[in-house]
């Protein structure tokens, strides 16, 4: 149980284009979904927290107009990197916490490696 | 906000030895402390967690201890194996409600055969 999927697993795009990443909780309903960014050999950097049906809460320094987050249902959240540039290349990971049981336990998706040329 | 310090950043041990990773936190309201293992290019996997109402939790070769007074918690891995090699992250949060975790910087554990 508690499986989170992420799609795509990797994507290469041209500078200036937009990329959408999906995060789904497969066998549970997620109260909250989180989006992280991870650089090589570094820790997880929280970008934003989203709750179903409400606007995402962005961490300081994260541009909300560049990283659009939509949490349309209790099983799906999307992150859209708009007008991507090479400096946006990174490993993006989502996580979700359940609406039932221990609501503070996070389950991570497999990550999406974004490369912007 | 919460601040989590994790040490060491790198830990090299021989197979069969024990490994200990320590984390300290700053917010006394934090009450949930998970540990994640991340292999290269893969997702972080929850390996063990502890809540503030207990001082120690064990799961086979892995154990976590929590000292609320000193605001530190540790991961103990006994009889290490090469497959334990990975990056381990600790985290602290105020569980229940507006849960937002703060992660440590990670410890790269290398187990030599």
Along the chain, the helix and strand elements of chain A come as EEEEEEEEEEE
Distance between the termini of chain A: 37 Å
Query: What's the total helix number of chain B?
Result: 0
Helix percentage of chain A: under 10%
User: Nearest-angstrom radius of gyration of chain B?
Assistant: 13 Å
Helix content of chain B: under 10%
Biggest interface:
A-B, 21 and 22 residues
Describe the global form of chain A. globular
| H/E element order of chain B | EEEEEEEEEEE
Count of beta strands of chain A: 11
Cα separation of the termini of chain B: 41 Å
Which percent range describes the beta-strand content of chain A? over 45%
Gyration radius of chain A, rounded: 13 Å
Q: What is the SS-derived class of chain B?
A: mainly beta
The low-pLDDT segments of chain B are none
Major sheet of chain A, described briefly?
A: 7 strands, mixed
The major sheet of chain B is characterized as:
6 strands, mixed
Structural class by sheet pairing and helices of chain A:
mainly beta
The overall pLDDT average of chain B reads: 93
Spans of chain A of 5+ residues with little confidence (pLDDT < 50)?
A: none
Relative strand content of chain B: over 45%
List the helices and strands and how they pair.
The complex is a heterodimer of chains A (117) and B (113).
Chain A: E1 4-7, E2 10-13, E3 19-25, E4 30-38, E5 44-51, E6 57-58, E7 67-73, E8 76-81, E9 90-98, E10 106-108, E11 112-116
Parallel strand pairs in A: 2-11
Antiparallel strand pairs in A: 1-3, 3-8, 4-5, 4-9, 5-6, 7-8, 9-10, 9-11
Chain B: E1 4-7, E2 10-14, E3 19-25, E4 32-38, E5 45-51, E6 56-59, E7 62-67, E8 72-77, E9 86-92, E10 102-103, E11 107-112
Parallel strand pairs in B: 2-11
Antiparallel strand pairs in B: 1-3, 3-8, 4-5, 4-9, 6-7, 7-8, 9-10, 9-11
